[in-house]
Design goal:
The complex is a heterodimer of chains A (246) and B (458).
Chain A lengths: L13 E10 L2 E11 L4 E5 L6 H9 L6 E6 L2 E2 L4 H6 L1 E4 L11 H11 L7 H10 L16 H15 L3 E5 L7 H16 L3 E6 L2 H7 L2 E6 L2 E7 L5 H12 L2
Parallel strand pairs in A: 3-8, 3-9, 6-7, 7-8
Antiparallel strand pairs in A: 1-2, 1-4, 4-5, 9-10
Helix pairs in contact in A: 3-4, 3-5, 4-5, 5-6
Chain B lengths: L1 H15 L2 H49 L6 H7 L2 E4 L19 E4 L5 H5 L7 H5 L4 H17 L4 H6 L2 H7 L2 H31 L5 H25 L5 H30 L5 H14 L5 H11 L15 H37 L3 H12 L4 H27 L28 H23 L5
Antiparallel strand pairs in B: 1-2
The chains are: A alpha/beta (246), B mainly alpha (458).
Chain lengths: 246, 458
Amino acid sequence: MQTAESGAGQPPLLEARGLSKRYGATQALDSLDLAIEPGEVYCLLGPNGAGKTTTINLFLGFVPPSGGQALVSGMDVSTHDRETKRRLAYIPEQVMLYRNLSGLENLEYFAALGGKGSLGRERLADILVEAGLERDAVDRRVSEYSKGMRQKVGIAIAMAKEADALLLDEPTSGLDPKASNEFSALIERLRNDGVAVLMATHDLFRAKETGTRVGIMRYGSLVTELGTDEIGHADLERVYLEHMHD
Amino acid sequence: MRARLRLLRLDMLRLTRSTGVGVAVVLLLAIGVYTAWRGGRNIEAAESSAVAAETGYQDQLEYLLSSYPLTTEAGEVLYYLAFPAPQPSLPLAGLARGRTEVETASLRIRLLALEGQLYEHETVNPRLAAAGDLDLAFLLIALLPLFIIALTYDLVSSEREGGTWNLVRLFARPRRLLALKLASRVCLVGAVVAVPVTVAASLAGLSLDGRAGWAVALIALHTGFWFALCLGVASGRRSSTANAMILVGTWVALTLLAPAALSLANAILHPVPEALELTVRQRQGYHEAWDMTKDETMQGFFEDYPEWSDRTVPEDVFTWSWYYAMNHRGDRAAREASAAYRDVLREREGWARRWSLLVPPLAAQLALDRLAATDLGAQLAYQDAVRQHHERLKTYFYPHLFAATPINAVDWDGVPVFEPAALEEGATRAGFPAATALVLASILVLAAGARLSGPRAD
């Protein structure tokens, strides 16, 4: 199991130690060990039910672990709920926003909720544009937005939060190729800013393009881990399919 | 602070951009302002009625004195003359009409038998009671909770069902979010309450005395009780539909079923005869005297008024002193039943006050009526004041009746003026038990509501 080196004695931004989750008789996640450093984009690949979303939910503290630890900057999520959540941003597969507020008002709302109430409306509008939203769309109600536009507001919310780590759960699912490409560019920017990214995805191409490391999961276990600079697209697909067969 | 205000503004925007909320706010404000205006009109009407009664009395007296020869006995004029007995309304009566919807506090009484006159209005238009009326208290006690329920039933569940819950709880503790959403709703409901109450206060000339202070406190606590109840239910993990059903069911139970059940139980436990029966008894007592000797009739009268027992009434001649004694006989015949009737009404009132504490909205309604002096106690006190006035009129006029004084020899300017019933001393404190019940119930629903409705949101 490959583990990223921690710089200057600092704990990894995201770390799983023997992390497990059981739902009744189902072992959703089984002793996961993982470490993600600042500036890393770690892509979790695997079929439905492999444990990708469970891993993200455990880091977010949305569900308690059955065993092991999910750590954010060395702090256990179970015991440091607020401190760890403060360092995290999250973009789900479907970014759901308040439909009767505009994109800008949604961003304003979440920014204020996250303690960034001092950010002015102009700055927030700029963040939305930086996230890829058209300038003339920022004041339109979210009920008029496409899925891609909502995803961009979701990214803007994450950017405004200035989180240390970003957790993405199938963020490009349902996006057209252009929107997916823009999305990858944004992730690249965040990575360059030193944000640690954990992304669950089915999209092998996007994982190879965006990620620095790829982990393949099956039946709740991490079965293999690869550096994206070590392999090409075709190799990644081959390795993935190999692991999907018993 | 700035972030909180920003959040509050945005949450208010979210609320007010909903068409349903907008329509409800406009509707409630319209009904609220209408009821406030109507309350003001009712007070004005009561005041004009009192003035009209006094003017009517003066006009009638003038007409009678000018129509009859000056040698006419006073008893003959007194047969027709109606004396005004208006009870002034408190400004709060514009907010809570209570029993004034169906019972007048501005009687015009004649020197004849009294009992029938006290209840005469009840037999005139009983449909008024069935139709009811819309006052501000009804809006605030019965309708406003529905608006609170509509605003809060999905406080948490809407986030969960709308998919924003996970995003939101990454930014704030659920408790903080709940507090924020609750605050924006409290502001909105507060505005909806404040507008009609301010209009009512200004139209009715309400000053902030002890009664008004308690009324405002009760309205605030009652509103708080519904918020507490909604919070208790809505902070659980149930779906929006389940929350709505629980809350609307509770509203039906507390606002419709429980008051009706208590009223029914009260009526069964404390049966009272119809007021009409008292009128019939009084009429029978009066009419029986036609078949009796005048002396028999007068003996009964002298038992109640021994100070005139040395007066005699001829058997073979009509006298006004005998005629009014005959009327008094009617009141004597109904006296026992009348006292029992009032006693049972007082028992009913006491029972309702005590048991209403188990149904906080009802307790608030009854307390508001009591503070506004529009409750049953105030009505009974008014009737007692009318009785006393009737007695004062008798005391004033009987010497003239026995002496067959002509109308020009009566000092009409010296006729006793109606002394309104004194305001119930304890009424100002009437808000205290209801307020206590509301506070305790709020704590109870906050503590137990969520437990009963499922685990807390997290």
